[in-house]
Amino acid sequence: MKVVQSLVLLIFCITACTNSNNNSTETHSDTTKTNKEPLIETLCFLRTEGLKQQDTAYVQLVINGDKITGVFANIPYEKDSRIGTILGTKQDHLIKGIWVYMQEGMQDTLDVEFKLDKDILMQKNYSMDMKTGRQFLSDTSEFTMKYKNIDCAKLPERLKSR
Fold first, then answer.
1. Distance CA 137, CA 130 (A)
2. b/e map of 57-88 (b: 16 or more CB within 10 Å)?
3. Strands 143-150 and 40-49
4. How many C-beta atoms surround the C-beta of residue 130 within 10 A?
5. What is the pLDDT of residues 21-35, one digit of tens each?
């Protein structure tokens, strides 16, 4: 329970720390030069499913050029949640990375792939290795899980209490 609360706090800290403007101006005698660092953009997405929309997944992406960091929380209703961080790269609209998460007090990892298109984030579905019981992205995985864009400051209450 404390791990979940810590990770939700991490979400808010990342959001608060990445909303700064990175433009600086240098003046040398009569010449003004503006140095623009890559724009850091923070986007948040939510997916709900189930009869009462009680199964929730939340993704926060911090995009710095082609580098991606963020938070990914998969919280099914009355089941074990997976909450952790994403580290990856972005090329055009495709995001590939590693999700390092905690589940039942154990740390684990999964590859993740997303497609970002305007206000929609699509995630590739996982296959299951029946011998190991582990999920993985197969060659036939498709972008089937749809997330809607939300205001990062308006995280749903049911996620704040975890």
1. 14
2. bbbbbbbbeeebbbbbbbbeeeeebbbbbbeb
3. antiparallel
4. 7
5. 444 434 343 444 456
